[in-house]
Each structure stands twice: as structure tokens, then as C-alpha cells.
Design brief:
With 223 residues, the chain is of the alpha/beta class. Helices cover 52% and strands 15% of the residues. Strand 2 (112-117), helix 6 (121-131) and strand 3 form a beta-alpha-beta unit. GO terms for molecular function: hydrolase activity. Belongs to the HAD-like hydrolase superfamily. SerB family.
């Protein structure tokens, strides 16, 4: 197999797809399993997590709190619902086309695509297949006897994204991080973008746009 010339690291929610997959999937799951009560339960959980965010609780802890609600759920059943959610949501328009086109162009140049997300594989596997990603760095719920425990190995948020990217790059010493690309939409993606030579901001987040502008200016100063 030819050696890829570089890697492309892409956040998923609101970078590659136009929604927050974790929350849309949770609502889909609860409604599928419990009908109108599920919609009410989702609203309660969403409000609870939003309150934590408003109080300044770290995103990593909110990520853990989200997955705690899957405790006892069968992994196979959640993955089946994840595939159903994806099919329905994709039919309605799921992707940010500019990002999907960019990833397609990178693949055409021989690069490997790496998706990096705080979401989990039950939701992300169809996205991996759609964009031809070679690697998925995501939050991994703990599984015991075929069911989720409600715990996670490590939330794939912020610095954890950067650590996972650095680990993957370290295992490929023939690839220069300066040749690699990173796509993100939120300030929590900045540690990941620090790991690559070509950061790309998706959307209009002021922190992201300012960061990419500074990086480009610094690069021009070195020329």
C-alpha cells in the first residue's frame, strides 16, 4: 500500500456535518424507544446538560454526563439505532458540503482522513464510511457484557483530541505534521489544530477565524 503523503484531521459535529450528532441521536433513540415520553425525557436531559454548560462545567465533564445516560443499553441495539438515525438524517441533508468536498480532494491526493470527535462510534461509523476515513478518534464508552456501563474511557474533547492526534502522528514518523491539515469549528478544536501545519476554520466562530489568521500571518513571516 502506498505511503500517504499527509494526514487530514477533521472534527465532525458542525465541521463535517451540520448538527450536534450526540444530541440529535439521543432524541432519536429516546423517541424510538419511548414515544412522546422519550421526547419529554430528552428535553429534561438536554436542559440538565445545558445548565451544566451555563455554570461553566468543563466540556469534558458534560461529555461524561451525556454518556452516563446510556448505562445498561445494549451496544448492538444502540448501533442499530445509530444506523437508522444516520439514514434518516442524511436523507434530509446532513453534510457541510464544503468540508466534504475538501476531504474528498485530500483523498484524491492520497491523504488519509482521520475523524476526531467527542461523539461515539454508534453514530460516527456511517460518517466514517461515507467520507472514506481511515481512522476514527472518538469518545469510547465502556462496555461490559455487551452493554454500556455509562462510563467512558476518555472524553475526546480539547486537549484529549490533541493527544490522540500526536499519538497517531508519532506512530507515523515518515509523515511531517507540518504537511498535515486540521479542520474545526470551535475553540475546543484549537489544541488539535496546533498539531498540524495547515489549520482550517469551518464556520464563523471568531476564535477560530482569529487563530487561523494568526497562523497564516506567522507562516508568511517565515517565508
Amino acid at each position: 500500500m502506498p505511503t500517504p503523503p499527509y494526514l487530514v484531521f477533521a472534527d465532525v459535529d458542525e465541521t463535517l456535518i451540520n448538527c450536534k450528532s450526540m444530541f440529535e441521536f439521543m432524541r432519536f433513540q429516546l423517541v424510538a424507544e419511548h414515544g412522546p415520553y422519550g421526547a419529554t425525557e430528552y428535553a429534561r436531559i438536554r436542559a440538565e446538560l445545558q445548565q451544566k454548560a451555563d455554570e461553566g462545567v468543563p466540556r469534558e465533564e458534560i461529555n461524561r454526563a451525556y454518556y452516563s445516560h446510556f448505562a445498561g443499553d445494549p451496544v448492538a441495539g444502540v448501533h442499530e439505532l445509530g444506523a437508522r438515525w444516520y439514514a434518516e438524517r442524511n436523507a434530509a441533508g446532513l453534510y457541510i458540503e464544503s468540508t466534504r468536498d475538501a476531504l474528498r480532494a485530500h483523498r484524491g491526493q492520497g491523504a488519509e482522513i482521520v475523524l476526531v470527535s467527542g461523539s461515539f462510534d454508534a453514530v460516527l461509523n456511517p460518517v466514517v464510511a461515507e467520507v472514506g476515513a481511515r481512522h476514527l478518534l472518538c469518545t469510547r464508552p465502556v462496555v461490559r457484557d455487551g452493554r454500556y456501563t455509562g462510563e467512558v474511557e476518555k472524553p475526546m474533547i480539547g486537549e484529549a483530541k490533541a493527544a490522540a492526534v500526536r499519538e497517531l502522528l508519532a506512530a507515523r514518523p515518515w509523515i511531517d505534521p507540518a504537511d498535515c491539515y486540521g479542520y474545526g469549528d470551535h475553540a475546543s478544536d484549537l489544541p488539535m489544530l496546533d498539531c498540524v501545519g495547515h489549520p482550517v476554520a469551518v464556520g464563523a466562530d471568531p476564535a477560530m477565524l482569529a487563530y487561523v489568521s494568526r497562523r497564516r500571518a506567522a507562516e508568511l513571516d517565515r517565508v
